[in-house]
Amino acid sequence: MMNKDQFADNHFIRTIIEDDLQSGRHSAVHTRFPPEPNGYLHIGHAKSICLNFGVAYVYDGLCNLRFDDTNPEKENQEYVDSIKEDVRWLGFEWAGRPHYASDYFDQLFDYAVGLIKEGKAYVDDLTAEEMRQYRGTLTEPGRNSPHRDRSIEENLDLFYKMRDGAFPDGSKTLRLKIDMASGNVNMRDPVIYRIRRARHHNTGDKWCIYPMYDYTHAVSDAIEGITHSLCTLEFEAHRPLYDWVLDNIPAPHPIRPRQYEFSRLELLYSITSKRKLSQLVSDGHVSGWDDPRMPTISGMRRRGYPPEGLRLFAKRAGISKSENTVDMSILEGAVREELENSAPRLMAVLDPIKVTLTNFSDGLTQSRSAPFHPNHPEMGEREVPISQTVYIEAGDFSENPPAGWQRLTPGGEVRLRYSYVIKCNEVVKDENGNIIELKCSIDHNTLGKKPEGRKVKGVIHWVSAEHAAEIKVRLYDRLFTVERPDAVRGEDGNYLPFTDFLNPESAKETTAYAETAALGLPPESRRQFERLGYFVTDRRDHRPDAPVFNRTVSLKDTRQEKQTDG
Protein backbone atom coordinates (compact mmCIF):
# COMPACT_ATOMS: atom_id res chain seq x y z
CA MET A 1 0.00 0.00 0.00
CA MET A 2 1.50 3.32 -1.04
CA ASN A 3 1.35 6.47 1.05
CA LYS A 4 2.82 9.92 0.61
CA ASP A 5 5.32 9.41 3.44
CA GLN A 6 7.19 6.97 1.19
CA PHE A 7 8.09 9.87 -1.11
CA ALA A 8 8.25 12.72 1.40
CA ASP A 9 12.03 13.08 1.47
CA ASN A 10 13.51 16.56 1.53
CA HIS A 11 15.73 17.11 -1.50
CA PHE A 12 16.50 20.00 -3.80
CA ILE A 13 13.80 19.13 -6.34
CA ARG A 14 11.17 19.18 -3.61
CA THR A 15 12.48 22.62 -2.58
CA ILE A 16 12.17 23.87 -6.18
CA ILE A 17 8.61 22.57 -6.44
CA GLU A 18 7.63 24.11 -3.09
CA ASP A 19 9.04 27.48 -4.19
CA ASP A 20 7.26 27.27 -7.58
CA LEU A 21 3.92 26.55 -5.95
CA GLN A 22 4.29 29.25 -3.29
CA SER A 23 5.44 31.88 -5.78
CA GLY A 24 2.62 31.11 -8.19
CA ARG A 25 4.94 30.13 -11.04
CA HIS A 26 2.93 26.92 -11.19
CA SER A 27 -0.42 26.10 -9.65
CA ALA A 28 0.02 22.33 -10.00
CA VAL A 29 2.75 19.75 -10.58
CA HIS A 30 2.92 17.84 -13.86
CA THR A 31 5.91 15.56 -14.46
CA ARG A 32 6.70 12.89 -17.00
CA PHE A 33 8.70 9.68 -17.25
CA PRO A 34 10.09 9.60 -20.81
CA PRO A 35 11.92 6.33 -21.59
CA GLU A 36 13.17 5.46 -25.04
CA PRO A 37 11.58 2.11 -26.04
CA ASN A 38 14.90 0.57 -27.08
CA GLY A 39 15.37 -1.88 -24.22
CA TYR A 40 13.99 -3.01 -20.88
CA LEU A 41 13.98 -0.67 -17.89
CA HIS A 42 16.65 -1.15 -15.22
CA ILE A 43 17.28 -0.15 -11.60
CA GLY A 44 18.29 3.38 -12.61
CA HIS A 45 14.94 3.82 -14.31
CA ALA A 46 13.24 2.58 -11.14
CA LYS A 47 14.78 5.49 -9.26
CA SER A 48 13.59 7.93 -11.94
CA ILE A 49 10.09 6.40 -11.96
CA CYS A 50 9.83 6.78 -8.19
CA LEU A 51 10.99 10.40 -8.43
CA ASN A 52 8.73 11.52 -11.29
CA PHE A 53 5.62 9.64 -10.23
CA GLY A 54 6.42 10.15 -6.55
CA VAL A 55 6.55 13.95 -6.57
CA ALA A 56 3.37 14.07 -8.65
CA TYR A 57 1.74 11.78 -6.09
CA VAL A 58 2.91 13.86 -3.12
CA TYR A 59 1.55 17.09 -4.62
CA ASP A 60 -1.65 15.55 -6.03
CA GLY A 61 -0.36 16.28 -9.52
CA LEU A 62 -0.04 14.31 -12.73
CA CYS A 63 2.74 12.26 -14.28
CA ASN A 64 2.76 11.26 -17.95
CA LEU A 65 4.30 8.13 -19.36
CA ARG A 66 5.84 9.23 -22.64
CA PHE A 67 7.82 7.11 -25.04
CA ASP A 68 10.55 9.21 -26.65
CA ASP A 69 10.47 7.12 -29.80
CA THR A 70 12.61 9.08 -32.25
CA ASN A 71 14.99 6.27 -33.23
CA PRO A 72 12.91 3.67 -35.10
CA GLU A 73 15.81 1.34 -35.90
CA LYS A 74 16.26 0.41 -32.22
CA GLU A 75 12.68 0.58 -30.97
CA ASN A 76 9.89 -1.97 -31.01
CA GLN A 77 6.56 -2.84 -29.42
CA GLU A 78 8.08 -5.44 -27.08
CA TYR A 79 9.96 -2.70 -25.26
CA VAL A 80 6.88 -0.47 -25.15
CA ASP A 81 4.82 -3.24 -23.57
CA SER A 82 7.51 -4.16 -21.05
CA ILE A 83 7.89 -0.53 -19.92
CA LYS A 84 4.15 -0.17 -19.33
CA GLU A 85 4.14 -3.39 -17.34
CA ASP A 86 7.15 -2.36 -15.23
CA VAL A 87 5.70 1.04 -14.32
CA ARG A 88 2.42 -0.50 -13.23
CA TRP A 89 4.15 -3.28 -11.31
CA LEU A 90 6.10 -0.67 -9.35
CA GLY A 91 2.74 0.68 -8.21
CA PHE A 92 2.24 3.72 -10.43
CA GLU A 93 -0.35 4.79 -12.96
CA TRP A 94 0.21 7.48 -15.57
CA ALA A 95 -2.11 10.35 -16.37
CA GLY A 96 -4.49 9.52 -19.23
CA ARG A 97 -3.24 7.35 -22.05
CA PRO A 98 0.44 6.68 -22.70
CA HIS A 99 2.02 9.45 -24.76
CA TYR A 100 4.48 9.04 -27.63
CA ALA A 101 6.87 11.61 -29.03
CA SER A 102 5.77 10.23 -32.40
CA ASP A 103 2.27 11.53 -31.65
CA TYR A 104 3.74 14.98 -32.18
CA PHE A 105 5.70 14.37 -35.40
CA ASP A 106 3.33 16.59 -37.40
CA GLN A 107 3.63 19.43 -34.87
CA LEU A 108 7.38 18.98 -34.62
CA PHE A 109 7.63 19.27 -38.40
CA ASP A 110 5.42 22.37 -38.45
CA TYR A 111 7.50 24.00 -35.69
CA ALA A 112 10.66 23.22 -37.66
CA VAL A 113 9.14 24.92 -40.71
CA GLY A 114 8.39 27.91 -38.51
CA LEU A 115 12.00 28.02 -37.33
CA ILE A 116 13.17 27.99 -40.96
CA LYS A 117 10.79 30.83 -41.82
CA GLU A 118 12.23 32.88 -38.95
CA GLY A 119 15.78 32.24 -40.16
CA LYS A 120 16.60 30.07 -37.14
CA ALA A 121 17.15 26.77 -38.96
CA TYR A 122 18.78 25.65 -42.19
CA VAL A 123 19.32 22.55 -44.28
CA ASP A 124 22.90 21.35 -44.29
CA ASP A 125 24.72 19.03 -46.72
CA LEU A 126 27.76 18.27 -44.56
CA THR A 127 28.43 14.62 -43.84
CA ALA A 128 28.67 13.44 -40.26
CA GLU A 129 32.47 13.43 -40.48
CA GLU A 130 32.58 16.90 -42.01
CA MET A 131 30.23 18.14 -39.31
CA ARG A 132 32.61 16.85 -36.63
CA GLN A 133 35.47 18.71 -38.29
CA TYR A 134 33.49 21.95 -38.43
CA ARG A 135 32.23 21.62 -34.84
CA GLY A 136 35.55 22.52 -33.20
CA THR A 137 36.71 21.30 -29.80
CA LEU A 138 36.12 22.13 -26.16
CA THR A 139 38.85 24.77 -26.43
CA GLU A 140 38.41 25.89 -30.05
CA PRO A 141 35.25 27.38 -31.57
CA GLY A 142 33.51 25.72 -34.48
CA ARG A 143 33.21 27.04 -38.03
CA ASN A 144 30.04 27.90 -39.89
CA SER A 145 28.86 25.39 -42.43
CA PRO A 146 29.18 26.63 -46.03
CA HIS A 147 25.43 26.00 -46.30
CA ARG A 148 24.48 28.07 -43.24
CA ASP A 149 23.48 31.15 -45.23
CA ARG A 150 21.05 29.50 -47.61
CA SER A 151 17.95 31.55 -48.18
CA ILE A 152 14.76 30.85 -46.28
CA GLU A 153 13.08 29.87 -49.55
CA GLU A 154 15.80 27.37 -50.44
CA ASN A 155 15.78 25.87 -46.93
CA LEU A 156 12.01 25.45 -47.02
CA ASP A 157 12.17 23.80 -50.44
CA LEU A 158 14.92 21.41 -49.34
CA PHE A 159 13.22 20.55 -46.05
CA TYR A 160 9.94 19.68 -47.77
CA LYS A 161 11.89 17.53 -50.24
CA MET A 162 13.64 15.81 -47.33
CA ARG A 163 10.22 14.96 -45.93
CA ASP A 164 9.02 13.71 -49.30
CA GLY A 165 11.93 11.31 -49.76
CA ALA A 166 13.82 13.17 -52.48
CA PHE A 167 17.27 12.62 -50.92
CA PRO A 168 19.15 9.53 -49.74
CA ASP A 169 19.61 8.69 -46.06
CA GLY A 170 22.24 10.78 -44.33
CA SER A 171 22.68 13.21 -47.21
CA LYS A 172 21.07 16.22 -45.53
CA THR A 173 20.12 17.40 -42.06
CA LEU A 174 18.16 20.28 -40.58
CA ARG A 175 20.21 22.30 -38.10
CA LEU A 176 19.36 25.11 -35.74
CA LYS A 177 21.19 28.35 -36.41
CA ILE A 178 22.51 29.25 -32.95
CA ASP A 179 26.23 29.90 -32.37
CA MET A 180 29.19 27.92 -33.73
CA ALA A 181 31.48 29.78 -31.29
CA SER A 182 29.50 28.82 -28.19
CA GLY A 183 31.47 27.37 -25.30
CA ASN A 184 28.78 24.68 -25.08
CA VAL A 185 29.20 22.36 -28.06
CA ASN A 186 25.53 21.40 -27.81
CA MET A 187 24.70 24.93 -28.97
CA ARG A 188 26.90 24.79 -32.08
CA ASP A 189 24.10 24.54 -34.63
CA PRO A 190 22.71 21.21 -33.42
CA VAL A 191 20.99 18.84 -35.83
CA ILE A 192 17.26 18.53 -35.20
CA TYR A 193 16.25 16.36 -38.20
CA ARG A 194 17.99 13.62 -40.16
CA ILE A 195 16.92 11.42 -43.08
CA ARG A 196 16.41 7.81 -42.08
CA ARG A 197 14.24 5.35 -43.95
CA ALA A 198 13.12 2.99 -41.22
CA ARG A 199 9.69 1.67 -40.31
CA HIS A 200 8.45 3.17 -37.07
CA HIS A 201 6.56 1.04 -34.54
CA ASN A 202 3.91 3.75 -34.14
CA THR A 203 3.80 5.72 -37.42
CA GLY A 204 4.75 2.97 -39.85
CA ASP A 205 6.27 4.28 -43.10
CA LYS A 206 4.74 7.75 -42.95
CA TRP A 207 8.05 9.47 -42.28
CA CYS A 208 11.54 9.17 -43.73
CA ILE A 209 12.87 12.03 -41.61
CA TYR A 210 12.97 11.83 -37.84
CA PRO A 211 13.52 14.56 -35.24
CA MET A 212 16.45 14.41 -32.81
CA TYR A 213 15.97 13.74 -29.12
CA ASP A 214 16.90 17.17 -27.69
CA TYR A 215 14.49 19.01 -29.96
CA THR A 216 11.71 16.46 -29.55
CA HIS A 217 11.98 16.25 -25.79
CA ALA A 218 11.64 19.98 -25.23
CA VAL A 219 8.70 20.35 -27.60
CA SER A 220 6.93 17.28 -26.18
CA ASP A 221 7.22 18.70 -22.66
CA ALA A 222 5.67 21.97 -23.84
CA ILE A 223 2.81 20.27 -25.70
CA GLU A 224 1.96 18.15 -22.66
CA GLY A 225 2.12 21.04 -20.19
CA ILE A 226 4.94 19.56 -18.15
CA THR A 227 5.98 21.82 -15.28
CA HIS A 228 9.13 20.09 -14.04
CA SER A 229 11.21 18.11 -16.53
CA LEU A 230 13.46 15.92 -14.36
CA CYS A 231 16.54 14.47 -16.07
CA THR A 232 19.75 12.79 -15.01
CA LEU A 233 22.86 14.90 -14.69
CA GLU A 234 24.36 14.10 -18.09
CA PHE A 235 21.63 16.31 -19.59
CA GLU A 236 22.78 19.38 -17.68
CA ALA A 237 24.91 20.56 -20.62
CA HIS A 238 21.84 20.09 -22.86
CA ARG A 239 19.65 22.41 -20.78
CA PRO A 240 20.63 25.60 -22.71
CA LEU A 241 19.45 23.89 -25.90
CA TYR A 242 16.25 22.75 -24.16
CA ASP A 243 15.59 26.36 -23.14
CA TRP A 244 16.51 27.72 -26.58
CA VAL A 245 14.03 25.43 -28.28
CA LEU A 246 11.22 26.37 -25.90
CA ASP A 247 12.02 30.05 -26.26
CA ASN A 248 12.00 29.89 -30.06
CA ILE A 249 9.42 27.40 -31.26
CA PRO A 250 6.78 29.47 -33.05
CA ALA A 251 3.82 28.32 -30.97
CA PRO A 252 2.48 29.59 -27.65
CA HIS A 253 2.16 27.14 -24.76
CA PRO A 254 0.44 28.03 -21.49
CA ILE A 255 2.97 26.10 -19.38
CA ARG A 256 6.70 26.81 -19.68
CA PRO A 257 8.52 23.62 -18.65
CA ARG A 258 11.87 23.85 -16.92
CA GLN A 259 14.51 21.17 -16.79
CA TYR A 260 16.22 20.09 -13.56
CA GLU A 261 18.96 17.49 -13.28
CA PHE A 262 19.79 14.93 -10.60
CA SER A 263 22.62 12.41 -10.41
CA ARG A 264 22.06 9.06 -12.06
CA LEU A 265 22.29 5.89 -10.04
CA GLU A 266 25.37 3.69 -10.25
CA LEU A 267 24.83 0.32 -8.61
CA LEU A 268 28.01 -1.53 -7.71
CA TYR A 269 28.42 -5.14 -8.93
CA SER A 270 26.07 -4.30 -11.78
CA ILE A 271 25.77 -2.40 -15.05
CA THR A 272 23.01 -0.10 -16.29
CA SER A 273 24.04 0.50 -19.88
CA LYS A 274 21.22 -0.64 -22.17
CA ARG A 275 23.77 -1.51 -24.83
CA LYS A 276 25.70 -3.76 -22.47
CA LEU A 277 22.57 -5.29 -21.01
CA SER A 278 21.47 -6.05 -24.56
CA GLN A 279 24.87 -7.64 -25.20
CA LEU A 280 24.41 -9.93 -22.20
CA VAL A 281 21.13 -11.09 -23.73
CA SER A 282 22.25 -11.38 -27.35
CA ASP A 283 25.50 -13.17 -26.47
CA GLY A 284 23.70 -15.70 -24.28
CA HIS A 285 25.35 -14.79 -20.98
CA VAL A 286 21.87 -14.62 -19.46
CA SER A 287 18.58 -16.26 -20.40
CA GLY A 288 16.85 -13.00 -21.36
CA TRP A 289 16.03 -9.47 -20.27
CA ASP A 290 14.15 -10.89 -17.29
CA ASP A 291 16.89 -13.26 -16.15
CA PRO A 292 16.76 -13.03 -12.32
CA ARG A 293 20.40 -11.92 -12.24
CA MET A 294 19.75 -8.90 -14.47
CA PRO A 295 19.35 -5.41 -12.95
CA THR A 296 16.29 -4.88 -15.14
CA ILE A 297 13.00 -4.27 -13.37
CA SER A 298 11.57 -7.39 -15.00
CA GLY A 299 14.62 -9.39 -13.90
CA MET A 300 14.39 -8.15 -10.32
CA ARG A 301 10.68 -8.90 -10.33
CA ARG A 302 11.34 -12.46 -11.48
CA ARG A 303 13.99 -12.82 -8.80
CA GLY A 304 11.35 -11.98 -6.22
CA TYR A 305 12.16 -8.39 -5.34
CA PRO A 306 8.86 -6.81 -4.24
CA PRO A 307 7.91 -3.42 -5.69
CA GLU A 308 7.79 -2.05 -2.14
CA GLY A 309 11.45 -3.04 -1.73
CA LEU A 310 12.47 -1.20 -4.89
CA ARG A 311 10.55 1.89 -3.81
CA LEU A 312 12.29 1.76 -0.42
CA PHE A 313 15.65 1.40 -2.15
CA ALA A 314 14.96 4.41 -4.37
CA LYS A 315 14.16 6.44 -1.27
CA ARG A 316 17.37 5.38 0.44
CA ALA A 317 19.48 6.01 -2.67
CA GLY A 318 18.27 9.60 -2.49
CA ILE A 319 18.05 12.54 -4.91
CA SER A 320 20.97 14.95 -5.23
CA LYS A 321 23.47 16.35 -7.71
CA SER A 322 26.42 14.58 -6.11
CA GLU A 323 27.68 11.16 -7.20
CA ASN A 324 25.09 8.50 -6.47
CA THR A 325 27.12 5.28 -6.21
CA VAL A 326 25.26 2.70 -4.16
CA ASP A 327 26.45 -0.70 -3.03
CA MET A 328 24.38 -3.73 -3.95
CA SER A 329 23.95 -4.43 -0.23
CA ILE A 330 21.70 -1.35 0.08
CA LEU A 331 19.35 -2.76 -2.54
CA GLU A 332 19.43 -6.22 -1.00
CA GLY A 333 18.86 -4.73 2.45
CA ALA A 334 15.75 -2.84 1.32
CA VAL A 335 14.37 -6.01 -0.27
CA ARG A 336 15.20 -8.06 2.82
CA GLU A 337 13.50 -5.53 5.11
CA GLU A 338 10.30 -5.61 3.12
CA LEU A 339 10.21 -9.40 2.87
CA GLU A 340 10.91 -9.86 6.57
CA ASN A 341 7.53 -8.35 7.30
CA SER A 342 5.51 -9.68 4.38
CA ALA A 343 6.75 -13.17 3.44
CA PRO A 344 5.07 -16.21 5.04
CA ARG A 345 7.44 -18.84 6.46
CA LEU A 346 7.92 -22.47 5.64
CA MET A 347 10.73 -25.00 5.95
CA ALA A 348 12.77 -26.46 3.12
CA VAL A 349 15.97 -28.47 2.99
CA LEU A 350 18.30 -27.70 0.06
CA ASP A 351 21.17 -30.11 0.82
CA PRO A 352 19.45 -33.03 2.54
CA ILE A 353 20.86 -35.70 4.78
CA LYS A 354 18.61 -38.54 5.92
CA VAL A 355 17.77 -38.80 9.62
CA THR A 356 16.05 -41.92 10.96
CA LEU A 357 14.21 -41.43 14.26
CA THR A 358 14.73 -44.82 15.81
CA ASN A 359 12.11 -44.51 18.55
CA PHE A 360 9.44 -42.94 16.41
CA SER A 361 6.00 -44.27 17.34
CA ASP A 362 2.74 -43.59 15.52
CA GLY A 363 0.85 -43.63 18.77
CA LEU A 364 3.29 -41.52 20.75
CA THR A 365 5.06 -39.13 18.36
CA GLN A 366 2.93 -36.10 17.57
CA SER A 367 2.93 -33.23 15.10
CA ARG A 368 2.41 -29.55 15.84
CA SER A 369 1.05 -26.58 13.97
CA ALA A 370 3.21 -23.54 13.31
CA PRO A 371 2.41 -19.94 12.31
CA PHE A 372 3.17 -18.77 8.79
CA HIS A 373 4.55 -15.56 10.31
CA PRO A 374 5.50 -14.93 13.96
CA ASN A 375 4.19 -11.35 13.88
CA HIS A 376 1.15 -11.77 11.66
CA PRO A 377 -1.37 -14.24 13.10
CA GLU A 378 -3.77 -13.23 10.33
CA MET A 379 -1.56 -15.24 7.93
CA GLY A 380 -2.74 -18.38 9.70
CA GLU A 381 -0.99 -21.63 10.59
CA ARG A 382 -0.07 -24.89 8.96
CA GLU A 383 0.44 -28.41 10.29
CA VAL A 384 4.08 -29.52 10.45
CA PRO A 385 3.88 -33.34 10.31
CA ILE A 386 6.67 -35.64 11.43
CA SER A 387 7.54 -39.19 10.35
CA GLN A 388 10.19 -41.78 11.13
CA THR A 389 12.45 -40.37 8.42
CA VAL A 390 13.18 -36.67 8.17
CA TYR A 391 15.65 -34.57 6.19
CA ILE A 392 17.96 -31.97 7.69
CA GLU A 393 20.59 -29.78 6.03
CA ALA A 394 23.92 -31.56 5.67
CA GLY A 395 25.53 -28.39 6.96
CA ASP A 396 23.67 -28.71 10.26
CA PHE A 397 25.69 -31.80 11.24
CA SER A 398 29.40 -31.97 12.03
CA GLU A 399 31.54 -34.84 13.30
CA ASN A 400 34.25 -32.36 14.27
CA PRO A 401 32.37 -29.20 15.23
CA PRO A 402 34.17 -25.88 15.66
CA ALA A 403 34.01 -23.91 18.89
CA GLY A 404 30.57 -22.51 19.58
CA TRP A 405 28.79 -25.06 17.36
CA GLN A 406 25.09 -25.23 18.26
CA ARG A 407 23.85 -27.77 15.78
CA LEU A 408 23.93 -31.54 15.63
CA THR A 409 27.00 -33.66 16.49
CA PRO A 410 27.57 -37.35 17.32
CA GLY A 411 26.11 -37.82 20.79
CA GLY A 412 24.77 -34.27 20.76
CA GLU A 413 21.25 -32.89 20.91
CA VAL A 414 19.38 -30.33 18.89
CA ARG A 415 15.75 -29.25 18.62
CA LEU A 416 13.85 -29.76 15.41
CA ARG A 417 12.03 -26.51 14.70
CA TYR A 418 8.40 -26.71 15.98
CA SER A 419 9.05 -30.28 17.16
CA TYR A 420 11.12 -32.47 19.46
CA VAL A 421 14.66 -32.49 20.76
CA ILE A 422 16.60 -35.28 19.09
CA LYS A 423 19.95 -36.91 19.92
CA CYS A 424 22.37 -38.32 17.35
CA ASN A 425 23.28 -41.90 18.35
CA GLU A 426 24.87 -43.28 15.19
CA VAL A 427 26.49 -42.02 11.98
CA VAL A 428 26.08 -44.27 8.92
CA LYS A 429 28.60 -43.95 6.08
CA ASP A 430 29.01 -45.52 2.65
CA GLU A 431 32.09 -47.41 1.45
CA ASN A 432 33.77 -44.10 0.56
CA GLY A 433 33.30 -42.63 4.00
CA ASN A 434 30.48 -40.28 3.02
CA ILE A 435 27.73 -39.75 5.56
CA ILE A 436 24.47 -41.13 4.21
CA GLU A 437 22.32 -41.39 7.34
CA LEU A 438 22.06 -40.29 10.93
CA LYS A 439 20.24 -42.44 13.47
CA CYS A 440 18.73 -40.32 16.19
CA SER A 441 16.35 -40.74 19.11
CA ILE A 442 13.50 -38.46 20.10
CA ASP A 443 12.99 -37.11 23.61
CA HIS A 444 9.21 -37.40 23.64
CA ASN A 445 8.92 -35.11 26.65
CA THR A 446 10.16 -32.07 24.71
CA LEU A 447 7.28 -31.30 22.35
CA GLY A 448 6.51 -27.66 23.04
CA LYS A 449 8.59 -27.56 26.22
CA LYS A 450 12.19 -27.50 27.37
CA PRO A 451 14.03 -30.72 28.24
CA GLU A 452 14.41 -31.43 31.94
CA GLY A 453 17.80 -31.03 33.61
CA ARG A 454 19.74 -29.77 30.56
CA LYS A 455 19.95 -26.97 28.02
CA VAL A 456 19.64 -27.52 24.27
CA LYS A 457 20.60 -24.35 22.45
CA GLY A 458 20.51 -25.39 18.82
CA VAL A 459 17.36 -25.29 16.67
CA ILE A 460 17.46 -26.56 13.09
CA HIS A 461 14.93 -26.77 10.29
CA TRP A 462 13.82 -30.05 8.73
CA VAL A 463 11.09 -31.70 6.68
CA SER A 464 9.33 -35.01 7.02
CA ALA A 465 10.39 -37.41 4.25
CA GLU A 466 6.94 -38.95 4.13
CA HIS A 467 5.23 -35.60 3.68
CA ALA A 468 7.92 -33.68 1.76
CA ALA A 469 7.24 -31.89 -1.50
CA GLU A 470 10.03 -32.13 -4.06
CA ILE A 471 10.84 -28.70 -5.44
CA LYS A 472 13.32 -27.20 -7.87
CA VAL A 473 15.37 -24.37 -6.39
CA ARG A 474 17.48 -21.88 -8.32
CA LEU A 475 20.18 -20.21 -6.28
CA TYR A 476 21.16 -16.82 -7.69
CA ASP A 477 24.12 -14.67 -6.75
CA ARG A 478 25.52 -11.40 -8.06
CA LEU A 479 26.16 -11.45 -11.79
CA PHE A 480 29.60 -9.81 -11.54
CA THR A 481 32.60 -10.42 -9.31
CA VAL A 482 33.88 -6.82 -9.18
CA GLU A 483 32.25 -3.55 -8.15
CA ARG A 484 32.54 -1.82 -11.53
CA PRO A 485 32.79 -4.49 -14.21
CA ASP A 486 32.78 -1.94 -17.06
CA ALA A 487 35.51 0.24 -15.52
CA VAL A 488 38.46 -2.15 -15.10
CA ARG A 489 41.59 -1.31 -17.09
CA GLY A 490 44.19 -3.79 -18.25
CA GLU A 491 47.95 -3.36 -18.14
CA ASP A 492 47.83 -1.39 -21.39
CA GLY A 493 45.46 1.14 -19.84
CA ASN A 494 42.49 0.13 -21.97
CA TYR A 495 39.22 -1.01 -20.50
CA LEU A 496 38.80 -4.75 -20.27
CA PRO A 497 35.58 -6.34 -21.56
CA PHE A 498 32.99 -6.21 -18.81
CA THR A 499 32.09 -9.82 -19.61
CA ASP A 500 35.50 -10.85 -18.25
CA PHE A 501 34.04 -10.36 -14.78
CA LEU A 502 30.90 -12.44 -15.03
CA ASN A 503 30.43 -14.59 -11.94
CA PRO A 504 30.50 -18.29 -12.96
CA GLU A 505 28.72 -19.13 -9.70
CA SER A 506 25.86 -16.67 -10.23
CA ALA A 507 23.26 -19.36 -11.02
CA LYS A 508 22.89 -22.88 -9.66
CA GLU A 509 19.97 -25.27 -9.59
CA THR A 510 19.20 -28.04 -7.13
CA THR A 511 16.39 -30.36 -6.15
CA ALA A 512 15.20 -29.78 -2.60
CA TYR A 513 12.48 -30.89 -0.19
CA ALA A 514 9.93 -28.59 1.39
CA GLU A 515 6.79 -28.67 3.48
CA THR A 516 3.66 -29.42 1.50
CA ALA A 517 2.72 -25.74 2.00
CA ALA A 518 5.07 -25.16 -0.95
CA LEU A 519 2.59 -26.91 -3.24
CA GLY A 520 -0.36 -25.22 -4.89
CA LEU A 521 1.17 -21.74 -4.89
CA PRO A 522 0.68 -19.44 -7.89
CA PRO A 523 3.67 -17.85 -9.63
CA GLU A 524 5.33 -14.94 -7.82
CA SER A 525 4.49 -16.23 -4.35
CA ARG A 526 7.16 -15.02 -1.93
CA ARG A 527 8.18 -17.17 1.01
CA GLN A 528 10.89 -17.26 3.63
CA PHE A 529 12.56 -20.64 3.84
CA GLU A 530 13.42 -20.60 7.51
CA ARG A 531 17.13 -20.14 8.23
CA LEU A 532 17.91 -20.12 4.48
CA GLY A 533 16.58 -16.95 2.88
CA TYR A 534 13.74 -15.48 0.86
CA PHE A 535 12.46 -17.31 -2.20
CA VAL A 536 9.80 -16.79 -4.84
CA THR A 537 7.94 -19.11 -7.18
CA ASP A 538 9.27 -18.41 -10.65
CA ARG A 539 7.13 -16.12 -12.78
CA ARG A 540 7.63 -18.19 -15.96
CA ASP A 541 8.50 -21.80 -15.14
CA HIS A 542 6.69 -22.52 -11.87
CA ARG A 543 3.60 -24.70 -11.78
CA PRO A 544 1.56 -25.39 -8.64
CA ASP A 545 2.21 -29.15 -9.04
CA ALA A 546 5.86 -28.71 -10.09
CA PRO A 547 7.25 -25.88 -7.94
CA VAL A 548 10.22 -23.81 -9.07
CA PHE A 549 11.62 -21.40 -6.49
CA ASN A 550 14.18 -18.65 -7.06
CA ARG A 551 16.30 -17.43 -4.19
CA THR A 552 15.65 -13.72 -3.90
CA VAL A 553 18.09 -12.79 -1.15
CA SER A 554 19.72 -14.40 1.88
CA LEU A 555 18.39 -13.83 5.39
CA LYS A 556 21.29 -11.54 6.22
CA ASP A 557 24.16 -9.82 4.48
CA THR A 558 26.98 -12.30 4.96
CA ARG A 559 29.28 -10.26 2.70
CA GLN A 560 29.13 -7.28 5.04
CA GLU A 561 29.84 -9.56 8.00
CA LYS A 562 32.90 -10.99 6.27
CA GLN A 563 34.19 -7.52 5.44
CA THR A 564 33.66 -6.44 9.05
CA ASP A 565 35.39 -9.55 10.40
CA GLY A 566 38.32 -8.96 8.07
From TrEMBL:
Question: Per UniProt, which keywords does this protein have?
Answer: Aminoacyl-tRNA synthetase, ATP-binding, Cytoplasm, Ligase, Nucleotide-binding, Protein biosynthesis
Query: In which domain of life is the source organism classified?
Result: Bacteria
- Binding positions for L-glutamine per the UniProt entry: 68, 213
Q: Where is this motif: 'HIGH' region?
A: 35-45
Q: Which residues form a coiled coil?
A: none
Quote the EC number: 6.1.1.18
Q: So what does this thing catalyse? A: tRNA(Gln) + L-glutamine + ATP = L-glutaminyl-tRNA(Gln) + AMP + diphosphate
Alphabetical list of Pfam families matching this protein: tRNA-synt_1c, tRNA-synt_1c_C, tRNA-synt_1c_C2
Q: What class of enzyme is it?
A: ligase
Domain Glutamyl/glutaminyl-tRNA synthetase class Ib catalytic residue range list: 29-340
The similarity annotation says: Belongs to the class-I aminoacyl-tRNA synthetase family.
Share what the entry says about its subunit structure, partners included: Monomer.
Q: Report the protein name in the record.
A: Glutamine--tRNA ligase
The gene behind this protein is glnS
